Amino acid sequence: MNPTPDIEIIREKCSGEGLVLDDRQLQLLEHYALLLQRANKTLNLVSRKEQSSLLIRHVFHSLLIGLFHPFQPGEKVLDIGTGGGLPGIPLAIAFPETKFLLVDATGKKIAACQNMIKTIGLTNVLAKKIRAEELKGMVFNTILSRQVAPLPILCSYAEKLLTPEGSLICLKGGDLEEEVREAKSAANKNNGFPAEVTLLPIDRFDECFANKYIVLVSGKIAENPPDTKKAP
Ligand code: SAH
Questions:
Q1: What is the CATH topology of the domain spanning 5-230?
Q2: Quick check: CB of 102 below 6 Å from ligand 1?
Q3: pLDDT by residue (tens digit) across 122-155?
């Protein structure tokens, strides 16, 4: 498969920020984009009007998280409301030694993710049909979420599922001032989470990311009870 211009853009922009993707990883990202495009014909996984540059708008958008948060080997990551595997699958390709659990409330979307994961041959990612608020007995170093729910809701899920030093990283767009204010004012109810919310603009990576942000949420979470510390 010859590399498309879009995948070359991804290679250059990621390596410029210190995330070096090898040829195999770039091929896997293209393969995933192809499978996502196919699955999207029957399932409403990503917006159709955006399909022309699916690699940039969805795959590269997801990878941007890894430029600001280089995932560590063994790190446990949860993707809440993954839909067709975003941002979890591109990040699992880019960080093969990190463990990703993708969850979504919709069974058909998770079945599509499971098929794509199997077809691509990824071994560091699992997909499960479950609502975030029903997850029990697990903790994660990092929680991700792309275009799923308002920040206060995501924070209320995250504070029960993160390790004390863990963080929530969301991809969001639009005017976030009110959401951030509400999330911060709910912190004393939510186990002290979040203590800090940082909005990182990402428009410099592509014009389609105008008015979009990576939202980094961290906090002093009280230790979750020891019996909830099983690995995913
Ligand atoms: N993150 C994907 C999908 C976004 S659409 C992307 O960026 O393309 C939002 C998804 O979140 C839907 O698939 C919906 O089923 C899921 N969702 C919403 N609330 C949820 C919850 N509480 N737990 C699990 N999944 C949820």
A1: Rossmann fold (3.40.50)
A2: no
A3: 999 999 999 999 999 999 999 999 999 999 999 9
